[in-house]
């Protein structure tokens, strides 16, 4: 973050300086009193179960230079600045919006029902081939995470990719008022949050709030295979990405290589892109073609875009491919597991070249479906021709029986068998519910 005076801070948030020198510099902003840095501004957020105002003194004692406050502290500590505001969360938004305005760079805002994080990471990988790019860490995509990301902008940044999520109407508008995108991306319209928005149309309308803050000369990049997004009409330019014939970034010649990823061709008015996507799953054609459309619009060449797609790395332990010695490939998907995601991961593994090994664990929170779901996954592994199945956990005993595989009660007991089965040239899937802590298996095999 580039520093600014608290006089500018007060003006940006509509606050009143209660104490402190107006020329004091703000060098960082923090909302967590436990991690706030030396010289930082502490911004106390009020949540359902906590009130950050209760931790102002702790934050100032830890090194923060001052704070915003909507509730007056009992005592104003000497040498610290205090700025009174009406609402600290709205002040956070106002600060981030003002700060965003200091940067005249391309800013891509990403939303959608699924695939936001994947698309954000793909866009960042591509744009980074030419520009110093800031992007949202992990999935910090809400009212707290979005301003946190924007306040990480520095003078050296040349582009930004900001992921924004929602669970209610009005939220994308709220976040967009801070982001003010020059490029708006919607990945798709699905059923996520239909409980709160009532219908697919309600979700569509909520996602389309992204266009309310899109620059007048901006660009919208939309999934061209989504029937809802095909309804979008804007005064700004629209590029659709997908397989359909009307797509401006049209995907063809898709080849699924299982754990080794996906290859395809994306054709635009300007060029033809032969892409090798290192992450598995046919759905990866959408973030890749979206990145082609955005990269091309921001001036990247064919080689830069192709290289950026090939350099993509997924965020966290979600369909992450690790390439190890001896031609071994490990599909690390141990973040979580349910019947649908387990099925999808096994289908990816089955398409992989060489020997196949599935290390599968308990799927939690299935209630009365627990036994049948594990049996069905085991039967699927056998049907798909998975070479070796090693199951771990009490629930997974049923899976092992149905797959004709080996069963172990714990990961510690299974490790010797896993190491022996993970021979050169083998493609291995590691997947279970998060409570099984299968990340330990990945850590052991990648030491």
Secondary-structure blueprint:
Elements: E1 4-5, H1 6-13, E2 16-19, E3 25-26, E4 29-30, E5 41-42, H2 56-61, E6 66-69, E7 81-84, H3 88-100, E8 107-111, H4 116-127, E9 133-135, H5 145-150, E10 159-163, H6 171-179, E11 183-186, H7 194-197, H8 200-207, E12 219-223, E13 237-242, E14 249-256, E15 262-267, E16 272-277, H9 285-297, H10 302-310, E17 320-324, E18 328-332, H11 339-350, E19 356-361, H12 370-384, E20 388-392, H13 396-403, E21 406-408, H14 411-421, E22 427-431, H15 439-445
Parallel strand pairs: 4-5, 5-6, 6-7, 8-10, 8-11, 9-10, 11-12, 12-13, 13-14, 18-22, 19-20, 19-22, 20-21
Antiparallel strand pairs: 1-3, 2-7, 14-15, 15-16, 17-18
Helix pairs in contact: 3-6, 4-9, 4-10, 9-10, 11-12, 12-13
